Amino acid sequence: MGKTDWKLRTKLVHDGSRRSQYGEVSEAMFLTQGFVYETAEAAEQRFIEIGSDEFIYARYGNPTTRMFEDRMASILGFEDAFACASGMAAVNGALMSLLKAGDHVVSSRALFGSCLYILEDVLGRFGVEITLVDGTDLAAWDAAIRDDTALVFLESISNPTLEVIDLKHVCDVAHAKGALVVVDDAMATPIFSYAQACGADLAVISTTKHVDGQGRVLGGIIAGTRDVIRGPVEAYMKHSGGAMSPFHAWVQLKSLETLDLRVRQQSGTALAICEVLDGHPKLNAVRFPTHVAHPQYELAKSQGESAGTVLTIDVKGGKDACFKFLNALDIFTISNNFADAKSIATHPATTTHARLPQEQKDTLGITPGLVRLSAGLEDAGDLIADLLAALETV
Ligand SMILES: *Cc1c(COP(=O)(O)O)cnc(C)c1O
């Protein structure tokens, strides 16, 4: 059976593995910055042309990091990938390597705060023109993408409001105008990612989230065609210093072995929580893209089997009631990460999205009662009991 026939679970365990002369079973961690050349001529040759099993410096590439890149590219369905120090190094790297002064970019408005900072503050300073649209409004995308648009950026499922974007439609409109599509797929998870299938040119994923999945290390990946990844992306990343640490690549390679099991379990728990909390008298709303109560349920279902591991609830009674609920939780920890094995509750309005002006919070639907819940690996019944007991105190 050829590698290309491998199913996802097999790829997650084996793809991209390289063995050293010792024949180790578990992937080796090459915690080395540099590499030795037998002769001066060999060094000269390696700087002229670098072979697929050769390395120069860990900022450019490293055997452990390369295993991680190859496995990530394979599971996301892209030809190649570059591993970055964090999800934001990946977002910044993808955009900075592909854009120049004077370019026009269209992006959905509902973005992770740091992504919005890169687009508006950083790229804006270098003369890139940004048009922000309501990502759920197809006509808004059609009107905003122009003949001279260079790139379209979006989060396939937005953080924290869980808006779903019709990715196939946006890719078709962008490609008709010759624009590249870069998808931030952090919320969708690598397991349920549909970026490549819908025609996106690049997927960027914070591997800090589900890939590590255990709250330990930062990481990010940029996946795309070999020409783009080993062309402008690698050139920008290797010279600007955003490469992933080999230690983090090793931790996350081992995490990939269990990614499918963890994500499916956590996603099932998120759905089970929605089913119990939907219609609860203390809540205004419960949202999870692949739960029927979500306004874009049909679209979400048509794009992916399930929609990540994060749901939102809107607690009645504003900030005070919401804080009372949060403080009464026993198993859910109050934190701002998501996708951890430990279930996490986040209050976006006062933490991750506190910096946004009130008007923008209103437009995005970041209400005082909104809580982002990341379903972990604990027993689903225990988590539901924890949420119900905390709601009783409100
Ligand atoms: C977390 C996140 C990022 C940034 O990832 P880091 O690994 O924290 O740098 C970018 N985009 C989205 C949608 C995220 O959720």
UniProtKB/TrEMBL annotation:
Its cofactor is pyridoxal 5'-phosphate. InterPro entries: Cys/Met-Metab_PyrdxlP-dep_enz, PyrdxlP-dep_Trfase, PyrdxlP-dep_Trfase_major, PyrdxlP-dep_Trfase_small. One of its GO terms (cellular component) is cytoplasm. One of its GO terms (biological process) is transsulfuration. The keyword Transferase applies. Its EC number is 2.5.1.-. The keyword Transferase applies. The modification N6-(pyridoxal phosphate)lysine is found at residue 209. Keywords: Pyridoxal phosphate, Transferase. GO terms for molecular function: carbon-sulfur lyase activity; pyridoxal phosphate binding; transferase activity. PANTHER family: CYSTATHIONINE GAMMA-LYASE (PTHR11808:SF80), TRANS-SULFURATION ENZYME FAMILY MEMBER (PTHR11808). Belongs to the trans-sulfuration enzymes family. This is O-succinylhomoserine sulfhydrylase. The gene is metZ.
